[in-house]
Amino acid sequence: MTELEWPVVHNVGDIIIQAGFILGPRTINDYELVYFPDGSGTVYEIGGQAFLLDEPCFIFTRPGEQHSYRFCSEKNVRHMFVHFDYAALQEENERFEPLFSQGNRFLSNQHTLVAGMMQKMLWIANHQSSYWRRRLAVLVAASLEELSSHSGYTDEGSVLSLPVPIQRALEFMEEHLAEPITIEEIAARSGWSHEHFTRVFVVSLGMTPKRMLLERRLRRAEFLMMRGAGSVKQIAFSVGFGDEHHFSKMYKRIRGITASDYLKRCNDPLFRHTADLLDSRTPYPVNRYILVKP
To answer: What distance in Å separates the CA atoms of residue 152 and residue 147, rounded to the nearest whole number?
Structure first.
């Protein structure tokens, strides 16, 4: 990414507003991301809609959108903000589609990393150490990527937030990875129709059941390869692929390298001596070796 492709940050602030203040109606000529770390009776109004900010949340406002804030009348309200321009947003790059289609309010418990990055922006702006403007731009870009990600559909790291039928389907999927199960069989475990199950699954997890089944099979294969638990052919059969060639083809397409290459890269005593972690609260699978740019 070149210098011109980063957001251009105009200003940032961490302000505590007196109870009852009304800001607007107003329009702004750049983008604004506001973080409210505490819920209150504050109301954000835009385009004929009113959003009660009774939970910690982010408010994303685009240039030219008339909006107003009616701050809580019962207590002072703290909010952190950053104003910026960003060519990728002006061009409506498809990766930011959720920022344009899902309204202006995003709950912070669905984007916990962004809350931390907003606080870090304020720390950097106050200290202004080397390359501080560039660091602000990087954090703004990362925050927008996170707000646009599918992780926003559910509380980050919280499997319990998924609908129970989806949890049952995932458990069935995991228990039968070595078998030639179909999406119809998985959907039947939810008790819903195939169409309804697929629709809720995508909204909850950001991918189709078919893609999730493939992903879980690849993860199981990688776990086995990391431990040196057989040849590529043996591992392919153990995770539900009918033949080695189909497994290798899918692995290369999704991961960008061959399964054989991954197996070679895991030929390290460190990976051969992993141990299971009981009762892990880590919100992602442990004992995974992830190649970001092969």
So the answer is: 7
Query: Could you give the 3-state DSSP secondary structure of residue 4?
Result: helix
ω into 25 cis (within 30 of 0) = yes
DSSP notation for 96-116: GHHHHHS-SEEEGGG-HHHHH
Q: How many residues in total does the chain contain?
A: 294
AA identity, residue 244 = E
For the ranges 47-51, 63-67, 111-115, 264-268, the maximum mean pLDDT occurs at 63-67
In terms of Cα–Cα distance, which of 157, 93, 97, 146 is closest to 120? Answer: 146
State the Cα–Cα distance between residues 81 and 143, nearest whole angstrom.
12
CA–CA distances in Å: residue 285 to residues 60, 112, 149, 223? 32, 19, 19, 10
Query: pLDDT tens, 269-292?
Result: 877 777 776 665 666 677 778 877
Alpha carbon 85 to chain centroid distance? 22
- HSE, CB side, 13 Å, CA atoms: give it for residue 5: 4
Count other Cβ atoms within 10 Å, centred on residue 67: 21
Report which of 142, 11, 138, 172 is spatially closest to residue 80, judged by C-alpha positions: 11
Long-range contacts of 193-199 (CB under 8 A, 24+ apart): 197/165, 197/169
Distance CA 194, CA 148 (A): 27
Nearest to 79 by CA among 95, 61, 97, 65: 61
Tens-place pLDDT, residues 62-86: 999 999 999 999 999 999 999 999 9
